[in-house]
């Protein structure tokens, strides 16, 4: 079972991206699971989930740092046992560091689980262009991600989106940077699935 942890600010496009990736993988015959920490502007409606054969589990933690790892581990094991999906997407809330969650899950040595690169979505329109203007969570998420996806660039000016790209590259020179030039997220980078 492959597990992909996708983080970013509320409204950055996590749910939309996960639904597009799930639809793509489902068309190839894969079973998909989703673990949701937060509900954003786009929700997982039952009709879409049923059509795609997606099983979801919701994580509600009162104390994120002290119980998140245990909750996600428990949900991963449950969804694996009940549904045995090929791929599970974890939609992390905006205050969670996907790379840290991935490292914590790696230490748990879960059987038959392959962790994909940690992903952080960045909304080009809302992302600051100066490092000192970023919140601590945004800075840590961006600098720790293995893949940073910059979205909504079609709504942004070239000057601002270029400045966002430059700041992301300065924060995390090792990350793969993917761009979403289309407003429907139809063309997602293949590295998210590898």
TrEMBL record:
InterPro entries: CobW/HypB/UreG_nucleotide-bd (IPR003495), P-loop_NTPase (IPR027417), Zinc-reg_GTPase_activator (IPR051316)
Occurrences of domain CobW/HypB/UreG nucleotide-binding (ranges): 3-177
Alphabetized SUPFAM superfamilies for the sequence: P-loop containing nucleoside triphosphate hydrolases
One Gene Ontology cellular component annotation held by this UniProt entry: cytoplasm
Listed PANTHER family: COBW DOMAIN-CONTAINING PROTEIN, COBW-RELATED
The protein's name in its UniProt record: GTP-binding protein
Organism of provenance: Methanolobus sediminis
């Amino acid at each position: 079972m492959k597990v992909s942890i996708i983080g970013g600010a509320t409204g950055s496009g996590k749910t939309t991206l996960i639904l597009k990736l799930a639809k793509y993988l489902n068309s190839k015959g894969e079973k998909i699971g989703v673990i949701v920490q937060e509900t954003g502007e786009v929700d997982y409606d039952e009709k879409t989930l049923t059509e795609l054969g997606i099983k979801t589990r919701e994580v509600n933690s009162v104390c994120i740092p002290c119980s998140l790892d245990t909750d996600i581990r428990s949900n991963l094991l449950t969804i694996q046992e009940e549904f045995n999906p090929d791929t599970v997407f974890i939609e992390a809330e905006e205050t969670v560091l996907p790379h840290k969650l991935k490292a914590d899950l790696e230490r748990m040595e879960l059987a038959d689980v392959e962790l994909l690169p940690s992903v952080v979505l960045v909304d080009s329109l809302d992302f600051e262009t100066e490092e000192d203007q970023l919140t601590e969570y945004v800075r840590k998420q961006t600098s720790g991600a293995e893949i940073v996806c910059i979205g909504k660039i079609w709504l942004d000016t070239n000057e601002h989106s270029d400045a966002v790209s430059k700041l992301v590259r300065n924060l995390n020179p090792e990350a793969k940077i993917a761009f979403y030039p289309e407003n429907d997220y139809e063309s997602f980078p293949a590295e998210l699935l590898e």
